[in-house]
Specification:
Layout (H helix, E strand, L loop, with lengths): L1 H25 L13 H23 L9 H25 L1 H4 L18 H17 L2 H39 L9
Length: 186
């Protein structure tokens, strides 16, 4: 049963990545970031992402400790990283506001976590993913989390052109001060 959820989760993330790649290579449509909150791209992305996450969670439950039961320290560190990483990602997302976090805003956020990373939600999520992997300790889950991590490492490159188009010199100046993933430039 875990393998079935795994396959559906892989299919969802592959379709997301495929649509994003087609968008990037052809230029015929924008997939990510979506043009607005009411378009097919937005609805398709969120339907597929929800399928991915729900099936990932099901795989975590059904293949929990699939490789072997991890050492107590590994499980504790993993759980801690998962809670901290995903907790921070949710806090940053909701602190920013759902609409702003999804491109429906006319102001560029450069303070708080955004003073240290242009993509703090992705950075925090990567910490959460690493923790979840250590805690669950399953080959299937490691594969799914790796696919998710790769997507989160690539997505900022898709978003930056959109940010430059929408915020112009403000984004270029911000980009010159703050690294894509972590650290301020001096």
């Amino acid at each position: 049963m875990a393998f079935s959820f795994f396959v559906v989760s892989v299919a969802a993330i592959v379709v997301i990545c495929g649509l994003a790649t087609c968008s990037l290579l052809t230029g015929k449509f924008e997939f990510w970031p979506p043009p607005n909150l009411h378009c097919w791209q937005y609805r398709t992305f969120w339907a597929l992402f929800r399928i991915f996450v729900i099936c990932l969670v099901a795989t975590c439950i059904l293949d929990f400790h699939g490789l072997a039961e991890p050492a107590l320290a590994q499980a504790a560190i993993g759980l801690g990283l998962a809670v901290i990483g995903f907790g921070a990602a949710f806090a940053i997302t909701f602190g920013l506001g759902w609409r702003t976090a999804h491109g429906d805003s006319d102001k560029l956020k450069t303070t708080g976590a955004y003073a240290w990373s242009r993509n703090p939600i992705y950075v925090a999520s990567l910490v959460g993913m690493a923790g979840a992997g250590f805690f669950v300790h399953s080959t299937l889950v490691y594969i799914l989390l790796s696919l998710w991590a790769i997507a989160y490492m690539v997505v900022p490159f898709l978003e930056e052109a959109w940010l430059e188009d929408h915020f112009g010199d403000s984004f270029r100046e911000y980009k010159s001060r703050v690294n894509r993933f972590f650290g301020r430039r001096l």
